[in-house]
Each structure stands twice: as structure tokens, then as C-alpha cells.
Amino acid sequence: MEASSTTLLTSDYSDDSLCSSEQPTTAATNNYRSSSPEPDLPLLPQAAETIKVTALPRGGIYVPTAAGPLQIGIPPETIKDSMALGLAMPQYFVMPPDSFHRELGSGLGINVAEFEFPAYYNFFLRKRTIKLVVGSLETERRLRIVLQETLFGPVHIDPDVDFSQAVPRAARPNLAAESDYFRMFDGKVLTLDSLVQFVHFDAAGVVTIEGEGDYRGARIELRHRRANGGEFVVDEVDGASGRRRRAIVSQFIDLPDVLPFHPEPTNTVFEPPAFGVTVLGNSHGFDPSGSTSGYVLWINRRGYMIDPPPYACVILRNFNIRPSLIDGVIVTHCHADHDAGTFQKILFEGQVTVITTRTIYGSFIRKYAALSGLPPPLLRQTHRFLPVTIGETLRLRGASLNFFYTLHSIPCIGLEVFFGKRSIVFSADHMNDPERIAQMARDGILSDGRRDALLAFPWHHDAIFHEAGVPPIHTPIRTLAELPEDVKKRLYVVHVTPSSIPPDSGLRVAPLGVQNTVAIRVEAPPQQHHIAGSAVDALDLIGSVGIFGHCSLTQARDLLELGSRRTYPAGSIIQEAGGAVTDVCIVSNGRALVRYSAMARGVTVPATKESGEHGAAVAPQQRRSWQDEVLYSGADDVLSRGDWFGEEALMDAATPAAAAVVAITDVELLVLSATDLRWVLGDRVGLGLGARGYSSVWEGDIRGSLGAGAEGDGAKELVVGRPCARRPRIDRLIARNCVLRSMTRGQKLLFQSLLEARDLDQGDVVWRRGTPMCFTVLLARGVLYFSDLTSGETIMDAAMDRGVLSRHSACASRNGTGACSCHRHGSNGDSASYQNGVMGDGESRRRVRCPAEFHPGTLIGRSGPLISAEGGTHKHTLRCKTPATVLLVERDRMHYFSINNPGVFLSIHDLMFVA
Fold first, then answer.
1. Local structure of residue 509 (DSSP, 8 states)
2. Beta-sheet pairing, 130-134 with 196-200
3. Is residue 654 over pLDDT 60?
4. Of 36-45, 466-475, 745-754, which gets the smallest average pLDDT?
5. Confidence check: pLDDT of 743 > 90
6. Whole-number Å distance between alpha carbons of 352 and 900
7. Torsion-angle region of residue 441: left (phi > 0), alpha (psi -120 to 50) or beta?
């Protein structure tokens, strides 16, 4: 259970850039973040019309103009929206300042600058070059990196790094030569400039687009403005009629919580097979009605996602499959239709393991570091990497996995999976055309050994998931149609539309959805009543609880011996609201409801006729309302595997249960008594960081760093007090914070366990300008302010006044102009401002007035520099305007929280404050 490393993040958190040495910043004028005063918009005739824009279902705004359509924002699979709606495919796409979605929720980690498939569609189908409007040369540089990795693959490939010594060199692929083969199109070598032309704003901040072909004679002018938090203005002049129209579109790309083709949420509990596959998508990137191919491979009832499509986590959630059931993600290659959901999965709750070869992993990191603007070292810290070696067997949960390189335009791996005496094979993207393979060998592109390996595809497995598509980079359908009937019975075709399969071919498309999971019958491992009888499963559950994540192996062994399992039938009460709490309970199977409302609002708990092994039957009754019900603002929580409750048992004083817990379905719990936990873990029951343990007070006089201490001493070393367990008032504070309130219950519990409350007097200093960063603060009571800044001094235009800031601070849902009050640090001479925009080079960061004061619920302090190896220093002095209570998150604790919740961290890591 020990973490493999406690190394702090090694990232550059300078004020001007987040670019690492692996991605040097190109000096360039960034018209998105120009601080010069903005000129007024050109006046239009009073009779000017408004261009009617279309909000696309997957996100992005389609703007039809007399000079041709353009699109602002490019979420994954966005071309499918245009195709399905019968809209002309745009040639011009406007890159938003924020290149991926940072807000916690369904859209977290979704790339809104996915230009890959629009470029393919325009080039291969329309025979034209896509034109990307970008805000800086630095953005162009980063997008060229993306295009290199996704179109041509890595520039430099180590021929030995991915292979076991047991693999003969003659049988190894020449990945560079194979990629070069696929670069030929119509007798010419494809280049980056063949597919994409970058368009920049001029010195006046304008892009002029002249209509071509059918649109000849029309002209549009595109402007980017900082008004209303950032917006694009499209002015149109129709040369034929002289008509003038205008559209104003927010720079923020709204993403739907649920897409139309997503399954409806269900209360049915999905029981993963011991061995099998759930198909999340079975089509390709150009099918407007299909979902892009992706899978969940189930091994011993635990999941490994393979090329998860966008929103794959939402699809699983709607089928009641918790993130804790997914142990890792297998990345086969770095085309957008196969890796778009991987980055999103990485950012969801808990750390995920990324499984692929070192070559593909390097490409993945370069691609998403360039897209997001995050330094590669920081991006690597958000997950674990498990390297694949071709020729060596990888063992996962009792299964054996063998990987192989397929024949594709960029490096791509397929895999064979063996569990018990059954097996599955995934082809991944693969050009399985025997005639072409033979010709490539004759042309010297493939060695004889590589040719023979490709022709000997393993058709013998119990289940075969093989792709088909448009040559030359995919398998022609005839290859599969010519297979023996016995093979076809075990074959599931993917990456294809049903209409492309000949009706008499004997082929079938892989069935879509959790309800159609392909289960391979194997002998399931025995389950025993005592926890030690299923040690691996128990360790998974213990490790999924953040406060136990640093248990040593010795401590984990003790917990295995002392823990037990309990079962409760559906409808029974597991925990009474207001009752004594003696155990920490982790859900192993089933679903339960935390009934805050039943306790706080007098809601009737449903009756049941059954009584459980440990749960009493529930009669209809009214739960008493707590006098402090106002302290609770959260809705009821649904618990499933990996979720836990009973945190009150870890408090020093006897604390009654804050809520009832009711079994929705039959529930199995892993139960750890608080007495045993204290005996095993001692004072480190909450969290075991380092070797120093915890005390209830800080060591030494804290006034040198927190309080009224002398100037210039800097912050002293902190010895953190015992982690406070969940408090109702902290729940209320978190509910007021525009980012923290979107955390999951498990994330909230962990975050609350890291907080240390301190009372301060009026005039006390929280931290001083120039002192090292040691903690961030969540303001619980009172008012804080930056005492070395003058409120209202800003380098922004006057449109962003106090009223706009107040509106933003409310963090209302985005309506095209509103924005979450998440402000980034910036400076310009002696003035200071707070900005919100893209990570990295930060183009078009929204600048707002420095607030006069901070109020309860505000998180203050940049967590990125705080936990970086280089550390950081405070840029301003934070002082108490009134007596205050602050909740501190110390450096080591924030590091622990961040690496286990990368999505939350990446939402706030370079923000100066979050209101």
C-alpha cells in the first residue's frame, strides 16, 4: 500500500509561463492576451441583422456566413454534428483560448481544440486544407506538435526500447518506415502544411476571411474581445447585396453533461463478468450516428478501458459502474478517435494506470502536453505508467497479456489476453490486407519476419475483436468476409458502420452497451466470508479510501486480519442518523444511500419486509430534524463500490452519525473497527505522510508565518495536526466554492480530512509577500484581503467592473457570457490582476479587478507552485481584515491530494484564488 514515490512535482511555475524545458516557449505576440485598450466595435447600420448561430450537440458554435461557415470551438467528434444536421462542413475553425475543459463534471478533460478529424475530413474528402484561427505563434507551435504525433507519429523512434531481447530483430517492425509508407497520398508525400493552414489575428486583432468559390465576393471580419469575459465577434459583409450582419459568441465552449446517444441512468446494478468485454463504441470518427470504438476489458471482475471514447466515464456512470472498478487504461495509439477519452479518464477520481509501450506513451504525453499547455513532468504526475514490452507477458489480476505492433499509419499495438483457459484478442487499428502486406515486403518496407508475423494473425481465440474500415490504413471488409465460418462465429467487427458489412458475409458488428457485455465463461475465483480470503479485493478497497492510501504493507496485513465483511438486504438501514458510530465501512458490492435529507428534513424512510444479516427491518417512521440542519447543504449521496462512510468513528470525541445510510440494493461492506484502526495506525489513522506523524498543535511559535509575526522571517516548518474528519460546516463552505463543490463525495471526505483549522485576529498576517509557500487556505470565517494591493487597480478594460466580478463570483451556470470565478495570477508593472484562461501560455486570460476582500468559501493560494519541487514564494501579503478562521492545507497533504485527484488539481493548480 506504500506509494511508489513521494517526489514532489517538478514543474516550472514561473509567473509568465508553465512551459517546461521539453517545450520551449516561442516568443510571439499573443493577440488573445493583449493588455492594450480595446477599440470599440465598428458601428453597423441599425437595420443590420444578427447571424443565427447553431449550438452543436457535442459543443462548439456553428456560424453560417456569406463567406462560408466557420466554427468556434472543436470538441471531439464535432464533425458528426455537422454531418447529422446537414450543415456544410466548415473550412475555418476558431481555436478557443481554453483548449480543454477544466471544470469538474462530465466534460472534465474534454479537448475542445480537436482539429484532427475536421482536418482529415476537409483534406481527404473535400480536397482542401483546413484553416485554424489561433491566437499566437506559440499556439501554432503546440498544435504542430499535436499534428506531428497524430498524423506521422514520433519524430524519433528508438528501435529497441519496446522489445524484449527474445524478439528477433528480423521480426521487429521498422515503425518509422511503416509510418512513412502511409504518408503517400495521390503520389505525393503528406506534410503538416498539406492538412492545416494557421491563420493569425493582425495587429488590430482582426482576421479577415474572403469568400471563395460559391462564397466569392463576401467578406467576414473576426475579432476577439475581452469584454464579457471573452468573446468572438463575427462581422459579415455580403458583397452581392451589401447586407451586413453580426454574431457575438462567447469564447467559452459549453459542453453537454449528457449526449443524445448516451444511455439513460439506471438503478440496475451491473455485475462485471469474471472475463469479458463491454463495447462502449463500435464505429469510427466519420459515422454521424455511431459511437467511436472503445471497450472495457473485464479481468476477474475489474475493468481495463481500451481506447475509451469521449464521455466514456459518463456512460459507465449511467450504468452504475464506478471509477473505482476501472484499474487502468490501455492506449493502443494516439489518433483522436482512440485516445480522446484517455485524458478524461486520467482526470477523474483517483489515479489511473496508463498501459502502453514507451514509444506510444511518449507520443501521448507530447500530444496532450501540447494540447493542454501543461508541462510534460506535470502531466506525468497525474497517473501511473505501466510500460508494455513486446515479447514479454504482462500479468494483470491473474490474466496474461501479450502485446504486438499492428500495421498502421502511426505506432499502434494490439493485444492477446489469457485468463484461465480462455482468451480474447484485440486487433486495434490494423491494415490486415494480405496482398498489400506481401507487396510491402517486396518493396522492402517490411522484413520477411515482420511480414510473416502480420500474416499469422491469431484467429484461434475464443473472442476476436477486429477492426475494419477504409484502406489503406484499415482492414478491408473482404479480409474478414473470407475467413472460415468457425472464425466468424467468434469474431466481432468494430470500427465500422453496420451498413458497410455485406448482408451475406456472415459478419456481425460488436454489440454495443453494458447490457450486451460479451462474457467468456471461466471458473470464477472463490469468495470467502473472511476478509483475508479475498486479500487482493480487500486491499483494493482499502487503497481506494484516500485516508488509508499510505498504509504500509505491515499495516495492510493487520487490517486484513482484523477486518470483516457484512451484508445487508435492499431496504434495510445500515446506519441510523444520530446513532453511535464505531466502524469505518467501505462498500464492496451493491449500492447504498446516504440520507442527509431523512435526518435533516424529516423525510420518511421507505419500509421493507426483510431484515438482513446485520440490518434491522425498516418501518415507516419520521427521522428527527437536527437543530443544525442549516449546516447541511449537500444532496443525498449514492454509495457504490469503493465509497465509504463512518468517518465520525475517527473523531476524537464521540460524534453521532451525521446521516442515515440505507441499502438501495443488497449491499456487502468491508468493515474496519475504529478501535482496530487506531491500534494499527496509531496517530496516523487519518493519513500517513512521511514519518513524522501528527500532533494536535503546530510545533513552535506559529506567529512567524501565521499571525502578527515579524516581517521577513518567512514561514516556519509546520507539523500538521490530526486530520479533521468530515464537518458539516466544512461541507457548507465547500458547497459555496465554485470548483470544490463539484468534487465527488470521496474527494470531499479526503480533502476535509486534510484541513487544519486556525483562528486569527484582526490584522494578523496569513502569509507575507516573498515568503515560501507552505500551505493554501480555505476561508471559513471572517474577511481576508491582500494588504499590498489597491482594490480596483487593474490592467483591464472598464467593462469588467465590480458588478461583473460579483456576477462571476457567483459562478452561475454559463450562459454564453458568464464564467466561473477562478482567477489566475498575473502582473504588469506595479499593477496586479487575476485572470482565468488556458493553462500554459495563458492566451486570452480573462482579467478582473483585484477584489477588495475575500469571504468564506474562498480557496486562496496557488497549489501548483506550493507542491512543486522548486517551491514558490507568495506574491502578495494576505492579511485579516476581521477576526477569521482559516482551514489550512499543508504542502505534503496538498501533494497527496493532488496526485490522487488530478482532475481537481488541474482545475485549480495555477489559480490564485477560487471563490
1. B
2. parallel
3. yes
4. 36-45
5. no
6. 9
7. alpha
Three-state SS annotation for 797-835: CCCCCHHHHHHHHCCCCCCCCCCCCEEEEEEECCEEEEE
pLDDT tens-digit map of 384-395: 999 999 999 999
Instruction: Please identify which residue in the block is written with the cell numbers 511508489.
Output: 4
Residues 6+ apart with CB under 8 A from 255: 58, 59, 75, 101, 106, 107, 110, 112
> What does the alpha-carbon distance between residue 642 and residue 234 come to, in Å, rounded to a whole number?
49
The answer to whether the beta carbons of residues 426 and 256 sit under 8 Å apart is: no
Task: Confirm if 737 and 858 have CB atoms less than 8 A apart.
Answer: yes
Q: Which residue has the cell 477519452?
A: 341
Beta-sheet pairing, 859-860 with 822-828: unpaired
Tell me the sheet residues that pair with 390: 163
> CA 608, 612, 616: angle at the middle one, nearest 5?
65
As a three-state string, the secondary structure of 296-353 is EEEECCEEEEECCCCCHHHHHHHCCCCHHHEEEEECCCCCHHHHHHHHHHHHCCCCCE
Assess contact for 846 and 229: CB atoms under 8 A.
yes
Nearest CA to 719 among 766, 653, 774?
774
Handedness of CA 758, 759, 765, 766 (dihedral sign): positive
What the chain holds in terms of domains, given with CATH numbers, is 275-519 (3.60.15.10), 531-684 (2.60.120.10)
pLDDT class for 317, splitting at 50, 70, 90?
confident
Q: What is the pLDDT of residue 203?
A: 85
3-state DSSP call for residue 395?
strand
d(CA 145, CA 842): 18
Indicate if the pLDDT at residue 632 is higher than 50.
no
* Confidence label for 518 from pLDDT (cuts 50, 70 and 90): very high
**Rounded distance, CA 187 to CA 799, Å?**
55
